[in-house]
Amino acid sequence: MALKTVIASGKGGVGKSTVCKGLAIKLGEAGKKTLIADCDAGLSSQDIMLGVSEKINFTWYDAVSGRCEIKDALTEINESVYLLPSPPTPVNEDCNEKFCEIISSLEEEFDIILLDAPAGIGRGLLRAVNAASEALIVATADEVSVKGAAKVNEVLEENGITQSRLLINRYDIKAAKKGRLLTVDELIDKTLVRLIGIVPEDKNIMYSTVSEKKLKTNKSSGAFSRIAKRMLGENVELTLSQLK
Ligand SMILES: Nc1ncnc2c1ncn2[C@@H]1O[C@H](COP(=O)(O)OP(=O)(O)OP(=O)(O)O)[C@@H](O)[C@H]1O
Ligand SMILES: [Mg+2]
Fold it and tell me: What is the pLDDT of residues 174-185, one digit of tens each?
């Protein structure tokens, strides 16, 4: 049975999709067959970030609507990572139950299913949450993001997700030391969610979505590896010096 993890945040633009892609690649490298389910109907981004937009013929909405088999909607990224793309326009929310059924039908085939949730705490989020069994809450180290993370944690709990972990993204130790960002302790205190890891600010992440050239993303790569290992139950040390 696959681990089904929703990646949520409340506030938009904090890096959910980036984190989802980074973790999927590392989980795949660790030998886990991983599916990214892009749940952001109307604002899909995983197809672009993974460079497979041209290859997509069907999305999960086609499968939900009976226009294709679920296998036709899966796009191979590499031998271990697959994408279930999101429809290009917003969809009728009545399809949430069918969406859950589709995700459940993929549980035998995959070790891990990462559900990349849309921003907000509305019904789009609930589609992803209802299909999941646990959550990663992504937040950046500022008050607005933290408010979103705390709120999304409440929504997750109300919907039966009891296993949530906090992932701090775009962390800049120097800025935090100067008091310009919330500290890690403050982030945990304000969200009341257990920390799974910290991804540093890494400008190459955005460049890599534009440039054809393969860019090194060393700074965040190690963080994604460590978090992927923790997701798989490994005990990996967490220190701020790892982010330098
Ligand atoms: N660790 C990071 N370092 C630098 N830039 C980052 C990092 N993580 C994400 N970004 C950048 O932040 C922007 C938003 O990222 P992303 O699209 O992943 O956020 P999101 O939470 O999925 O947004 P949405 O709520 O719209 O779905 C992108 O330009 C991305 O390249
Ligand atoms: Mg996104």
Answer: 898 899 999 999
